[in-house]
Fold this protein.
Amino acid sequence: MSTYKAPLNDMRFVLFDVLGAEAQFQRLGYADATRDVLDAVLEEGARFNETVLAPLNAVGDQIGCKHDKATGAVTTPPGFKQAYDQFVDGGWSGLTAETKFGGQGLPHAAGVPLKEMIDAANLAWGNFPLLSHGATEALLHHGEEWQQEVFLKPLVEGRWTGTMCLTEPHCGTDLGLLKTKAEPQADGSYSISGTKIFITAGEHDLTDNIIHLVLARLPDAPAGSKGISLFIVPKVKVARDGSVGEANAVRCGSLEHKMGIHGSATCVMNFDGAQGYLIGQPNKGLMAMFTMMNTARLAVGLQGLGLSDRALQNALRYSRDRLQMRALSGPKFPELPADPIIVHPDVRRMLLTCKALVEGGRAMGYDAALLVDIAHAAPEEKERAEADALIGFMTPIVKACLTEWGVECTYHALQCFGGHGYIAEHGMEQLARDARITTLYEGTTGIQALDLLGRKVMQLQGAGLQTMLAKIEAFCAQNESNEAVSEFVAPLRKAAGEWLQLTMSVGKRAAANADEVGAASYDYLFYSGYVCLAYWWARSVAAAEASGQSQAFKDGKRETARFYFARLLPRTQAHKAAIDSGTAPLMALAAEGFDA
């Protein structure tokens, strides 16, 4: 069975030494977000995840959720409800929510380490409260005052949970094709009818009510994505005065049988004239939906990070204990019958790859969360706008890279176990199976890539890219003579310059052939991700040297950064070559040629 221990030292390092989060929080007006408070959150969060959630991870995988076809009810795995009750009683559900709705008012970035811990400890359980945050964001930005008063407080308190009901059997990501209908009623509500699939936590036994945010079409809606509206549809009817009534006409038709996250209820939801309320403006549902989607995408990136870290922890423990062969350069532990496998270069390749992607990814993901706080609370409009543009740019990078690296890291960790990783006893195959979904939901990697290159770079004239390049250049200029990081400055600056030239080259080709964007987008996303990670590794080394961390910690950061720059950053050249090849290698083969 795999185990988990929250990496508190590195979490603190990223928050306080790399990002300077405590000073940032005070500058942004979060007076209660002091170091003492944040340390207490980390310590207690670690205790809850290590002792309550982590032991349930294998239980959820082995037993899964159960669906009663007669009633539509879903029962979660043993221990899940008790853990959720503890989660709510501890005030965790409202950690970063506004105080006027019952939250604790901490900044968004203060909740990110807790989110990473939950994802590492028990990803399937973590999906139940996950989308409540997205529903909260949508209500905060688009809900009417009565909707906020009635629905936000129980969501923030954790007494109710939320969902995002977007996808339908026939349309997948292309929401412009959705068919769910919303008929206006005399009392100002709407009758919602249709079927939604892949609905995470669409039905469960953890709370008395579930608040579904549903995309649907009004009778006079224009065709396509411009005719979509967003509706609040509770599992149990809720009146405008907050009183709870009878069961609504919404029911779980079935549970999906999945590759992983068996403890998470992935539902087919049937709406049969269910009572709902319009949120936001008619036919503007996609805009409101993306308020939920963007925060959800960042959250899913953290899922990949959490799984990667847990996988690395277990692979490292096993590699130190497992004896097999002797080091090629001679015995390293002559008193033992064989050397532990951690002495072998290929095992170190896998472990160091995981360490580089996890620790660098942690800095990148936490910084994106801090940008959310800056965009919300910075005193100057210019700073808020710049942070908002950078969030938009970084969101597809964080989501896609951290989840794809999650698949890679769980693969490497399983491989360290050899055949023992493939069997269920050690829990590594569960981590690999669970990680696979993270690259798919909230927009596949291909969708993230198109969003990054097609929208954030081409349509928006690369505002976020320019900000990121400026940050990289500012760091390089500041640290050219810093002996601790000078070895990383030149390759980082070179990669950033090539990034800009590559962007301009794709843009020029795309002006003549729009398919160039689709052909380049996947490789462009990963090129971007590896350059960003190089920046965060250089910053991490600089921060470590300036910190009060032990010499062993500083050496660990420096040597891992050297590994990253030598072994992983060169992956950009393969992605560049693929981008430079253009559309021809992808589009030349006729459709019927695939069968030839």
